[in-house]
Write a structure and sequence with these properties.
single chain, about 150 residues, mainly alpha, Arc Repressor Mutant, subunit A, three-stranded antiparallel beta sheet, 6 helices
Length: about 150
Amino acid sequence: MDAYNTINDILVHLFNEIWELEKKAIITEEFKDITNNDMHIIEAIGVSGKTTMSVVAKKMKITAGSLTTAVNGLVNKKYVMRARGEEDRRVVYIWLTEKGEKAYYHHEEFHREMTNAVLNRLDEKEIPVLMKTLDGLSEFFRGYSSEE
């Protein structure tokens, strides 16, 4: 197979493979009550304290309504806490509970293992090439999504 076809094949299949593998790796017995999407919302909320619904919706590139639906489930399952702002009641703050932080770190560990699996196969000279390549791919996706 030539370089073009090999790269095309890898790109076409890689995203779905990562999504499926991630689902199997992170939705364990302990976290069986949430979805892969829920785990990414937990990741977007982060562990640095309170954030707002609007910040998380923007980070995830979803509507506030879609986020509200997902956060309602995460609040009911005790992964997330939510409160309206004291000064401005229109602002809704969210943050992770201890259970949510545990899920966050579990997900982060999967990403660390995935990244290390790639880095461990490369020598020091290859890492900048991979970074440049992935940056170019990322730039393509950002440009493609901004055209819509």
